[in-house]
Amino acid sequence: MDVTSRLAGSHRDFLGFLERRLGDRALAEDILQDAFVKTIGVELRDDEAVVAWFYRLLRNAVIDHHRRAGVQNRRLEEFARMPPPDVERAICACIGQLATTLKPEYAEAIQRIEVEGAPLQTFAAEAGITANNAAVRVHRAREALRKQVHASCGTCAEHGCVDCTCG
After folding, report:
1. What's the pLDDT band for 6 if we cut at 50, 70, 90?
2. Per the confidence metrics, is the pTM higher than 0.90?
3. In which domain, by residue range, is 93 found?
């Protein structure tokens, strides 16, 4: 019996071996097919050892897969922790201008809470009001700004423009 026939006869066993280690049948099938491709043209002296050799090949393929997945997961985690690139430029250019048209206490609330990231309690203390009053003021300021953006930008406000040229 030649190498190809011995390996083909154990196809189901190889697939089960991979599936148990990977937990994904489609991935197991892909790795098995890649391993079969690697055996094309390989000549072994001992036909009896071909199955053991192929299991070793599969085990190494599983290890390689897990290493690549680990690297990919670490890179995705690093990417998720990265700060967004230049957030100020990504925001519609007219927002800053429109915020200055609000009542002064609303403009101040937007500036301190939304732009500078001040905690609500800090803003409340600075403004000399209660935290509940500050929360209401911020809510009303956001609503007033939303109305200003909609009036100024129209459909742009609904669809979320990034490069604003509104007037």
Report:
1. confident
2. no
3. 87-159
